[in-house]
Amino acid sequence: MSNLTELTAQIIAARAAKKEMSTEELQLEMQIVYTFLKGIESGDALESTTLEQASKEPKPQKINFKQIFKKEEVICLICNRGFKTLKRHLSTAHQLKPGEYRKQFAIPAKYALVASAYSEQRKKDALDRGQGEILAKAREAKAAAKKAPVPAIKVKAPVPAVKVKAAVPAKLSKTK
What we know:
This protein is an all-alpha fold.
């Protein structure tokens, strides 16, 4: 079996591969993991403060929105990867809804979770297909429907008290 230092190094290396960490964060993680493994090996009960420190994620640092919300991509603050749109990635990889993600990292609503170039291209494509005119017509129809008078009473057809089964069709014979 590997010694505690080797196990700690393996755990920290796996964690660092998934998440970018500063030197201070790496050192803190090493201390926490080593203490945790040492406690498991000796069979001693772990201090609650050590467990609390190990379970807490580091507090998010001040976010530079210009670096995260770029023209060609939006960077995920959890895994530091870039995407054209974050909604699907958040739901599949991190099981988060966009609102939860915004709340977790204090992202204002004015920042779309979609790359601006991607959004502009989609808008241009929609206008080229004439969807702007279709949308305008649909809005006009909806506004006209709201202005139309509503009938005072809607009459429903009476529901029969007893359900009647439909007749079963006779078996069709094959003719040769």
